[in-house]
Write a structure and sequence with these properties.
Strand order of the largest sheet: 1-2-3-4-5
Radius of gyration: 23 Å
Helix content: 55-70%
Largest sheet: 5 strands, mixed
Distance between the termini: 37 Å
Amino acid sequence: MTKEERYISILQFRCKVLQSSGNSYEELFTCVMQQANPNFIQVKPQGRWGDKKNDGFDPTTGTFYQVYAPEDLSSTEDNAINKLNEDFTGLKAFWPQVGYNVQHFFYVLNDRFKGVPPAVLKNVKAVDNNNPDIEVNVFTAADLQAVFQSLNEVQVMNVVGFVPPADISQLSLNVLHDVIQHIMNSAPAPLDAIIPKKPDMMRKIEFNGLSEAISDRMLVALINVNAIDDYFNNNNNFLRDELRDRFNTYYVEAAHELDNPDEIFTAIYNKALPKSPTKAHADAVMTLMAYYFECCDIFKSPEQ
């Protein structure tokens, strides 16, 4: 995996974190930990037993994890503190009694890379001080990303799926057709699009704060935009406008949830990518992204 592909995989991972809460974040956390640590055991809730305040653990090190991932951590400080106290007490009361030594306890929080509220950290420290035989700490989204970044290429794809390659090959019109049909069949109803005047490509990239890695991929993909024009000319311009509106919808939705320009770009890309994609599918989606970016149908133009 090249450094550019590694960078894209991290963006894909961050998008997953930012768009996950509750069970979906717990599943993401579990997936990463299972890839990173073969000793990690997921605990499945069982009827009235539940999970006994333990979402997963490594019995060889006595390390236990409990996940709390509300949609907005900063607005649920009291719930976060109460859950920590309740979960730690329940875990400590059950697992040593069935033969598992608790040496480390991590309170896994999806802080969406914004940091943990001071009141929560204060309470975590208090639990740690009151239990000198157990190390108690938080495990943030940044900590999970650090584990993800330690994974090898296969493990990375097991977490985030297909990672698009850095090079763009000659575009296949058949594959382009498949990708376009996928977008047309799966996209939500378009929002009202405001399509500005087409600006200079590089000026727009700089204006939107996109990274060099994303910029390079789009510029390489532009080599194939003539194939897109040929496709539309051989079909109909209505399809061109429909796709424009759908990509604009993807952009508006991603920009509403995310702040980082590269993460917004990656979220749009992931939505447009079909399931079980090949490199040809990845090339087609990237070319479409470059096409509609250049036309100013996604992202802001300097004139706006």
